[in-house]
Amino acid sequence: MKWFARISTAVLFATLLGGCGSKVMVPPRIDLKNHEVIGVIGFSSSAEGKLGELATRRFVEAARRDQGMVRIVNLGSEQQILNEIGRDRLDRETYQMLGKGQELTTIVTGRLTISDVRPSIRIGVDLMSAGVSADVDAELDVEMIETSTGASLWSASGSDTRTIGQISVLGGKQFAFNADDPEKAYGELVGSLVAQVSRDFQVTWVRR
């Protein structure tokens, strides 16, 4: 059995050596400096409340984290923009107008879709207090648009299912995500979605 012990030791040693290889940084697949100045339209949401606002802010933070100084302009919500420029939808001409008016080369848009909400009502032990949480299926779709042509440059999507709290039942199948502290109530769900769609803007590490 000595030969088996020697072979096992050699395999273990080789595995340890392979695992100790140095890590090499791989730059982001997309360099945002090549797309400056970037306009961000507040992500829309299929549900009432602050989920879209939170997803927009988290995405911008994640996308520029490894990019250094990148010039980004917050353009407001889609409806605000359309009202200001007198258009009824985001199309090629709208993006071109925004590009010229704001001196933008690229615009980022996104939509958060809540496809299913399964609420659960919890009654406090004093029978006087209650809380509503829900299992939520959510998907985040993000796209980069070139303002000069209205063409799509890049897109990504992410999906997740989480249990979240502090929702309001509006009636029927309508729910509002309007917690006083959205970061605490919905932070994990939004963080997971943003992590999936922002990978191309971030540094990665590979072992060699």
Short description:
This protein has 208 residues and is an alpha/beta fold.
Description:
- The protein has 208 residues and is of the alpha/beta class.
- Helix content is 32%, strand content 38%.
- Strands 2, 3, 5, 6, 7 and 8 form a 6-stranded mixed sheet that branches.
- Helix 2 (51-64) crosses helix 5 (182-197).
- Mean pLDDT is 85; it is low at 1-17 and 126-130.
Radius of gyration: 23 Å
Q: What can be said about the biggest beta sheet?
A: 6 strands, mixed
General form: flat
Mean pLDDT: 85
**Tally of separate domains:** 1
Relevant terms:
alpha/beta; 32% helix; single chain; six-stranded mixed sheet; 208 residues
Reconstruct the topology from this structure:
Elements (H helix, E strand, L loop, with lengths): L1 H18 L3 E4 L11 E5 L1 E2 L2 E2 L1 H14 L7 E6 H8 L6 H11 L3 E18 L6 E17 L5 E14 L2 E4 L2 E4 L4 H16 L6 E4 L1
Parallel strand pairs: 2-5, 2-6, 3-6, 4-10
Antiparallel strand pairs: 1-11, 6-7, 7-8, 9-10
Helix pairs in contact: 2-5
